Amino acid sequence: MRPAWHADPPVPPAAVGSGLVTAPKTSLVPPAEAVPPVRHPDAPAPGEPIGSHYDQCFGCGSGQPHGLQLAARAGDGVNVTAEFTVRPEHQGAPGLAHGGVLATALDDTLGSLNWLMHVISVTGRLETDFLRPVPVDTVLHLDAEVTAVHGRKIYCTATGRIGGPEGPVAVRADAVFIEVKIEHFVNNGRPEEIQAAMSDPDQVRRARAFEVNP
Ligand SMILES: CCCCCCCC/C=C\CCCCCCCC(=O)SCCNC(=O)CCNC(=O)[C@H](O)C(C)(C)COP(=O)(O)OP(=O)(O)OC[C@H]1O[C@@H](n2cnc3c(N)ncnc32)[C@H](O)[C@@H]1OP(=O)(O)O
Q1: Would you indicate the residue range of the signal peptide (predicted)?
Q2: Which CATH number is 33-178 given?
Q3: Residue 149's Cα: distance from chain center in Å?
Q4: Ligand 1 pocket test: which of 178, 192, 204, 211 has the largest number of ligand atoms within 8 Å of its C-beta?
């Protein structure tokens, strides 16, 4: 017998012109006019820890006990590496990492590429491939790099390997990040967290690192 959920009628595709169809998505493939990324002269030296952009960040903040506590390091190009150890609080299925958590690991590692170019950017599109299940206690070895830049669009890619830095790829992502100014956060964040961030000298110093972008 077919399971009950198969009895549901299929959802009809949204009709063009119904108002449900969104604008065309930006391709994840850079356009021909895109240029190679440039490593900022003040970027962290290869191998240097990058540190969190915000200690409450779910991806890399040390102040988030259930977060991923990602620790990224600069590569020698416009690239980074990071590790994430899957903990029980990150499960989706029994004993396995939740796919959204793995997407967060990829997203946050890509976000730390900001420090290599000294440009603030946020995720516009993130397309993930889940190739192997990732058990609890696994160390996910991440690497991410910027492949091209076109205007405010930053094209980048990330992989997460298991069993060691050269192990098989378990997850990967292609993404387009969009450059923004600090005002993006100041204008959109909840006032109490923004106020707290602006009165934290460490946070202000981290934000100021992006202000000079020759
Ligand atoms: C002292 C206090 C301050 C605190 C400071 C903290 C320090 C911060 C430091 C570092 C932060 C790093 C954080 C990393 C965390 C990990 C990464 C994340 O999870 S980020 C969160 C998830 N993402 C979002 O929440 C974005 C939400 N979306 C938006 O806000 C907007 O849609 C935004 C900014 C992405 C674009 O809006 P528009 O109005 O500025 O952009 P338009 O002018 O329409 O487009 C510009 C170009 O970008 C393309 N574009 C726009 N949106 C796109 C999209 N979603 N996907 C692909 N392309 C897109 C467009 O096609 C256009 O391209 P054409 O110039 O025409 O070629």
Answers
A1: none
A2: 3.10.129.10
A3: 17
A4: 178
pTM of the predicted protein model: 0.91
Question: What pLDDT digit, counting tens, does each position of 56-99 carry?
Answer: 999 999 999 999 999 999 999 999 999 999 999 999 999 999 99
Residue 207: CA atoms inside 13 Å, Cβ hemisphere, count? 18
194 CB-near residues (< 8 Å, 6+ apart)? 185, 186
Count of CB atoms situated within 10 Å of the CB of 54: 19
Supply the ipTM of this predicted assembly: 0.97
- The predicted-structure confidence for 99-111, as pLDDT tens digits, reads as follows 999 999 999 999 9
Q: Is the CB of 155 inside a 6 Å radius of any atom of ligand 1?
A: no
CA-nearest of 125, 120, 126 to 185 is: 120
